[in-house]
Amino acid sequence: MKNIPDTKLGKMYTEHIQHILDKNIDALLDQYTDDALLISSFSKAPVIYQGREQVKEHMQGILGIDGLESDIVFWAETADPETLMITEQITMTVGGEKSEMRFADSWVLKDGKIAIHFAGMVQHPDGSLA
Fold first, then answer.
1. Residues 76-119: pLDDT tens digits?
2. Domains along the sequence of the chain with CATH
3. Could you tell me the pTM of the whole model?
4. What torsion do the CA atoms of 87, 18, 128, 120 make, to the nearest 10 degrees?
């Protein structure tokens, strides 16, 4: 992981990625509110997950990741309300195949947990732009 600031949200993001690397879905879910909303564009069409069980369904995809490298290209955070907006250059290995892509993640926190997560794909592994 590169270019992560030494802030409260920087530490939370680092833990988030470590949970993914550890394939620890329960610890990852503990970072979310029980009624969290996650909007994903990973499949080139928006998919909305509401609540812990549906967010858990989305997180099952991390079980196939064998390696993940995240290089932060853009980072912005606010304290009140507590928000995070980042763009990441990602390299990961899934099924023995290495892929490179660019993500844009935004979090809105409530009581220190992710209440809204926009999980956006900016550039897909095939090079196409979202």
1. 999 999 999 999 998 988 888 888 888 899 999 999 999 999 99
2. 8-123 (3.10.450.50)
3. 0.90
4. -60
Copy the structure tokens of residue 47.
């998919």
Number of other residues whose CB lies within 10 A of the CB of residue 78: 12
The edge-to-edge listing of strands for the beta sheet with 32-40 is 47-50, 32-40, 113-123, 97-110, 82-94, 65-79
